[in-house]
Amino acid sequence: MRVRTRVTAAVAGLGALVALSGCGKADMSKQASPYANAAGAKTVTLSVQSWVGAQADVAVAEYLLKEELGYRVDKVQIDEIPAWDALSQGRVDAIMEDWGHPDQEQRYIKDKKTIVPGGGIGVTGHIGWYVPTYFAKKHPDVTDWKNLNKYAKDFRTPESGGKGQLMDGSPSYVTNDKALVENLDLDYKVVFAGSEAAQITQIEQFAKQQKPFLTYWYKPQWLFKKVPMTEVKLPAYKEGCDADPAKIKCAYPHTPLQKFLNADFAKNGGKAAEFLKRFKWSEADQNEVSLMIADQKMSPEDAAKKWIDANEAKWRGWVPK
Amino acid sequence: MSDTATVTPAADAATDAVFAVRNLWKVFGPKAETVPGNAELTGLDPVELRERTGCTAAVRDVSFEVKKGEVFVVMGLSGSGKSTLVRCLTRLIEPTSGSVEIDGEDVLAMDKNRLRELRRHRASMVFQHFGLLPHRTVLDNVAYGLEIQGVARAERREKAMKVIEKVGLEGLEQRRPGQLSGGQQQRVGLARALAADPEVLLFDEPFSALDPLIRRDMQEEVVRLHREEGRTMVFITHDLSEALKLGDRIALMRDGRVVQLGTPEEIVGSPADEYVRDFVRDVPREQVMTCRSAMRPVDSDADEDTKGPAIAPDATVSEAIEAVARSGFPARVMDGARCLGVVDHEQLLGVVAGVTPKGAAGRGGPAAKAGPSIRKEVTGEVAS
Amino acid sequence: MATATASTPVRDTGIGALLRRRAVVKLLLLAVVAAVAVPILNAKWASGAWPEALTVDVSEPLTKASDWIIDNRDSHWLFTYFFGHISNAIVLSVRGVYLVLLAAGWAGVTVAAGAIAWRVAGLKLAALATAAFAACGLLGMWVPTMQTLALMVVAVLASVVLGMLLGLAAGLNDRIFRMMRPVLDTMQVLPAFAYLLPVVLVFGIGVPAAVLATVVYSAPPMARLTALGLRGADGGVMEAVASLGATARQRLLSARLPLARKELLLGLNQTIMMALSMAVIASVIGAGGLGDRVYQALSTVDVGQALAAGIPIVLLAVVLDRVTGAAGERLGAHAEDNSPLRGWRGWSIAAAVTLACALAARFADRLEWPTSWVVQIAEPVNTAKDWMVDHLYTGVPVVGGTADWAAHFTTYVLDPIRDGLQGLPWWSVLLIVAALAWVIGTWQTALTAVLAMAAIGVLDVWNASLDTLSQVLAGVAVTVVLGFAIGIAASRSKRLEALLRPVLDVFQTMPQFVYLIPVVALFGVGRAPAVAAAVVYALPAVIRITTQGLRQVSPAAMESAQSLGATSWQQLRQVQLPLARPALMLALNQGVVLVLAVVVIGGLVGGGGLGYDVLAGLARGDLATGLVGGIAIVCLGLMLDRVTQPTERRAKKGA
Question: Where is the ABC-type glycine betaine transport system substrate-binding domain (chain A) (predicted)?
């Protein structure tokens, strides 16, 4: 008899569970963050990438969404590629600055149709290899990749061992450096600092000691204002030369940075979606905000406010009436 | 209840036997169940048995009955199987073979519910290490047995309070076991067993973990309880003086067998074998033996039936010694007005010295040297 | 002289000699095996790093699996009818708790924390709890704290339920216990990082994955301690309960479980601490909350922000640990509670006060922590850090700068060890592992260790693993030297121990993640700071075990040594250390396990190795790389644990 009560209890419990969870399909790809909309306001969730430029984009967008449109903004830090997945699932409503991920675009925009492009952010990005200008001035020929091997010994560090160090930032960033070093036959070792910030710290330290270094870096970036750097010329980029990641032998392209929106959000997101689609500024504007955040250590919110207060003409048009 | 008892030759005794144990075996080890039925194995001594089969026989072929209202003591050294035996009575340990009856009902045939009823209402146990629940107060510990019976809270608390008073723990009912002394804890254990108002109380070496003085108090407590309520008790102990003090009858165990079963006097006065004799060697025999067993027939020629102090047959020898010493004459053992016999210096000294003077009424000498078959006869005779 | 003669026979007949003799036999056997096997292996595959021919490429099937999951997540029944519901339930419950916390407002939550601590653990801890929550608000971390708390509440509840169920099964059934015990033991030594990827594979990045990883990580101690507690129930009590005619359920509910309540509370304590630790690390897979703030701050090397988020984590950890710990101690103590507030009265007062505060805050429209009350510590901290960078990093006269130390440590310690390991022929690494594990443990532990190491090779992460291993070895060496030294000193000086105790208490409760903050400030990024964080993390446990081990050396042995006129150095060397050997071994084992746990997280601050693989896998959405890294971490953890595992092991994890 006890067995029967137990079985009954188990069935009842299972039934309750099923009933609670909605009696059927549960699409986990359409679940928002549990923290979203907590205060009952309309909420937009933005993905914050780890580099400062993207933080500047988000800070300004956040401020305007809050102050001008009355939204609540949640920010989620996710790396670039997982952010696509999150965007597709609706855990994130928008990515403000994407540096080009063809695979993901194919999968989510063309195949699954869960993400739509949101237009350009107005900034063109370019990745390259850089040496500090103080070093380039002393050794002008270092700016050609063909001469890099000559200077390998100058770029040696404990982490790179006997080879020269090519410093990369976060593993998640778009990078072909390992292949490039191999294919261009360079006597270098790619060392990942782990994150952009770590990389910046190291660059600043090198700069302080006026030491030579070779680093993966990109434009637009505020750090150029603090540590002037000169790009090393790699073999010129041609359309399609980066098709096979293993055989790349050319420089990085110049990429107009893109915004992407979750498809549902783009359709039903109202003014917020409209605003994010219209958001477009310039490299100089972005750098201004970035510098305030990263160098003057202002909070992103304060930095955004400062820029917004000074540049109403620029953003007024983004805000839908 | 006796009418449901199976009819056996001893059926007339079933009415006053609470527990009837017959040919009980408990064997631990692989294929334990094959041992009792195998004549070849049953004859082995423990060491050989373990070598042959890897089994340990904790209880071997034990039979006895516990009569209503008596204190039945099972005594033996550690490892003699006595604790296993008492656990077999309520199947806390499942016997390997044999039979156990309570009020004529076969315990081994009981289903789970019936067995639970037995444990809840008919036989409660008091343990050497108390077995109290440390997270409950004294009151809740005592009421625990009632709680698992499903007795309502108010009622069980009331009952528990009564028992607590009975065992002398008033005022401590809100304490937890950890805050009590050993003796107090055992009183809680006793109270818990009493709370269910069982037919039989089973004691498993209840006082051996206590200090000597407290142990004596507790023994007296048990004596008092028994006197007041007349409840049947089965008492396990390794302490001979405790056994002699409490027991109406004593079963003495060794290596799983009952080597002798009898009244304290029989055990002390007529040890069944060398082992028992050794065991009881240091007992102050004059305090156990009664005049009835020490006396010799009256020698009417010497006027013994008229002279000398009168003494009851159940008086201990030491009492007789005092009387004899005071009067200078042999004491008359008087059952009412009838003179059963006399005890004089010779008998009394014989008892103290542990030798059997000629003409004494006690059984002794030859049985002690007898083999197992005779020993069985002895136990059987006493049991029936 | 007297001590020498007295101690020599002891040593020769003691365990040491026996072990040494047995060890020699084992080593000889192993040498024979090696003599036969090595030439064959060498002839077939080259020596040096793990041979290519013996690797299995798992990344392709894993990538396919990962792609399949992403493509089918919204359509396949497995997801829509099973994982989807789990994910849903988690999101709903976290959200529910979070909304309740927000609705209670900062006043309600702070007062509730104080009230609960008051009822459970007394006034002192109530003050601590209230202050801690207030501090979270003051630091401007109220909302992240509530997010972390909401996640924790759900994860801890789930862990406790799951752990208790598993523990019940294992506690009541020998077979299940025997099967589960090694699994649980092993799970306890694995770094938290290894748990992240499998859940991400199925659930994607986000709160559900974070909660599940937390549950998987923190349920084992509950299960383990529940099982141990249930099995350890006093046989006498259980027999007494049975003798009273209790049913199986009554025996369990009224006796066995209450008897195990100390273990259950200890389990709860450990589960909470591990859940917090994991909830913070899980920010890497989208847990949000405080961990996310630390993670974000670390990725911008913003030490001030990291600290502002790190302090609430530490406070939360200390409060949770102390309150649950105090609850356990209260159970053990038999003090009679005669205060008029005991039982339901105290609780209802606590509830009433909480409710009143929550309502007051609500009507005053003060649910959110007032912005004006926020103290910005980020800026001063960053200023201080900048000053440190300017003045302490490099070129400090005589001692050099912290960055210089880090560079030297990397060049002169980490690099040689790494290059040495990577230069060793692969079979010799296996042999060394086998020899160490066998000498210290049994042939089973040796076999597990060798298999784990071989698995690393098969998975083709040999070099990355050896990189991580080199950091672990360096970290362990530093930890053990420092730990033993401080431990010995503390065991000989009551004063030092009294000074150390509160420090160790706090350090041992801190989640691993937090240790990364100060080391980044001090040493910048790279392998050296990762190792430094690991050392700081593992040190308290090692010191504690060493001190306890030395203290527990039988006073009789010490007394007899003293009476023979041994100097205190002789006492230490000849009596205490040999007798405390099991404790020292245990300290080593714990040190290894804890160092590994942090070294892999060190991937976040440029530690490289396997931790980097996992992070890179997460960051690039390349789960195959990440999973392989995770599996390798598991293997490495297994190997290191088995190699240092003496016969008996410890019930409680160091942190």
Answer: 42-309
Residue of B nearest to C335 (CA): B179
* Interface touch B119/C261, C-beta < 8 Å: no
Task: Judge if B88 and B235 occupy the same domain.
Answer: yes
Residues B246 and B70: beta-carbon distance below 8 Å: no
* CA–CA separation, C372 and C391 (whole Å): 34
C258/chain B closest Cα distance in angstroms? 7
For domain C400-643, say whether CATH 1.10.3720.10 is its number. yes
pLDDT tens track for A193-224 = 777 777 887 888 788 888 899 999 988 887 88
Q: What is the pLDDT of residues C467-477, one digit of tens each?
A: 999 999 999 99
Assess C142–A contact: CB distance below 8 Å, yes or no: no
The domain total for chain A is 2
A91 to C94: CB separation less than 8 angstroms, yes or no: no
Predicted model pTM:
0.80
Whether residues A178 and A275 fall in one domain: no
Residue type, C266: L
Do the Cβ atoms of A258 and A98 come closer than 8 Å?
yes
**Confidence bin at B360 (pLDDT 50/70/90):** very low
Same-domain status, A230 and A264: no
d(CA C432, CA C418): 16
Contact yes or no for A78 and C612 at CB 8 A: no
Q: Give me the mean pLDDT over the B115-135 stretch.
A: 89
Render pLDDT for C333-370 as a digit per residue (tens, 0 to 9): 545 555 666 667 778 888 888 888 888 877 777 777 77
Interface check for B119 against chain C (CB to CB < 8 A): the answer is yes
pLDDT at B378 over 90: no
The answer to whether A81 contacts C620, with C-beta atoms less than 8 Å apart, is yes
A1 pLDDT tier (thresholds 50, 70, 90)? very low
Please name the residue of chain B whose CA is at the shortest distance from the CA of residue C253: B148
Residues A137, A242, single domain; the answer is: yes
Tally of domains within chain B? 2
Q: What is the pLDDT of residues B176-195, one digit of tens each?
A: 888 888 888 989 999 999 89
Beta strand ranges found along chain B (DSSP E)? 17-28, 56-67, 71-76, 97-102, 105-106, 123-126, 200-204, 232-237, 249-254, 257-262, 310-311, 331-335, 338-343
Q: How distant is the Cα of C345 from the closest Cα of chain B, in angstroms?
A: 18
**Percent of chain C, pLDDT > 70?**
92
Are A269 and A241 found together in one domain? no
CATH classification number, C61-332+340-369, choose in 1.10.260.40, 1.10.3720.10, 3.40.720.10, 3.30.230.10? 1.10.3720.10
Go through C308-320 and write b for each residue having 16 or more CB atoms within 10 A of its CB, e for each that does not.
Answer: bbbbbbbbbbbbb
A220 preceded by a cis bond (ω within 30 of 0): yes
- CB-CB: which of C206, C295, C620 is closest to A171? C620
Mean pLDDT within C395-415: 80
- Give pLDDT tens digits for C21-53: 667 777 777 777 777 777 777 777 766 677 777
How far apart are the CA of B120 and the nearest CA of chain C, in angstroms?
A: 5
Mean pLDDT of C532-538: 92
Both B215 and B323 in a single domain?
no
Q: What is the mean pLDDT of residues B74-103?
A: 89
Structure-block tokens of residue A15? 């039934």
Q: Which of C95, C296, C411 sits opposite A77 (nearest CB)?
A: C296
Which residues constitute the domain of residue B293?
286-364
Assess whether chains B and A touch, using the rule of 3 or more C-beta pairs within 8 angstroms: no
Do residue A169 and residue A282 come from a single domain?
no
> Which residue's structure tokens are 């004294």?
B138
Contact criterion met (CB below 8 Å) for C194 and C237: no
d(CA C618, CA C256): 44
Whole-angstrom Cα distance, residue B375 to residue B260?
7
